[in-house]
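Recall the central idea of this unit: under ordinary conditions, the amino acid sequence of a chain determines the structure it adopts. In this exercise we apply that idea directly, starting from the sequence alone.
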Amino acid sequence: MVEPAAYPEPTSRVELIQTHISWVFITDCFAYKVKKPVDLGFLNFTTLRRRHYYLHQELILNRRLCPDVYLEVLPITIHRGHLRLGAKGRPVEYALKMRRLPQERMMDELAERGELKQEHLDGIIAQLVPFYAQAATGPKINNFGEPALIAYNHEENFSLTEDLVGYLLSNELFERIGAFARNFLIDHRSLFLQRIREGRIRDCHGDLHMRNICLADQVYIFDCIEFNHRFRNGDVAADVGFLAMDLDFHGFKDLSRYFAERLAVASRDAELLVVLDFYKCYRAYVRGKIAAFTARDPGLAPEARAQAEQTAQAYFMLAGEYAGDGAPWVA
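Accordingly, the structure predicted from this sequence is:
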């Protein structure tokens, strides 16, 4: 797949980018995502049928915010001993074809260059507020806002990261984050139930951080969660908290506060700010967990694995900061 001849359109080169669950092949004009045959418990891509199904889910769900970027799912076949994308024959794999977005306009790159401004966040808010208002909701989706299911998501994270204690986070930090999450759910149970009644539980994005936002000719919010309803469906505050946490992580606390406060006003959801640190803590811990999984990927170079370990530790420390505050943030 790194050979230009494998692709249906001419390309001068092919760049490979890896995550813990995907290979992404970048050509001159497009990006092609192939899912890794992994089973991490919360996702299972171990069969070709599953990978094909979840690529179609990714196509459908991401067209909600990026209809012009997500194009089609193509088969990968073998022709005369060589892989060919979109050619006739028995599929040996599948790839999701996406229009390539300008890398230099990715939100994280703008932030790194010091070019990220409030008006960029205004554009994101202008996309998100109607998206959440129109996103699917109802009794089945409301179940994902129940305190018991929220608790299950947290406990699953803690269970999957127990073996990291003493390696990427201390026992004291592990216990503090767990106690904060459990106590917050108990102390604010009535608020979580109120948010269900108010229609704040939606089919959201689920992975709303800076690397999944492009600020080009318009705002592109891409790469939502497709593999697990529990990670995508939930309180809109969990989505907002993800991006707010990511801004905090990269040193943009003022922009983080601006984003959360402006979105809360625009969506007439003052209580979002009360549960924000709770969800920011959850999101930071999830990012730590994912970075820890990446650090264990034998397919990565040692330097990349070491960097992933450092990233995991930093996210766990940030989760601990939110837990250490121990109180809701009220603007």
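The CA atoms of residues 78 and 84 lie 6 Å apart.
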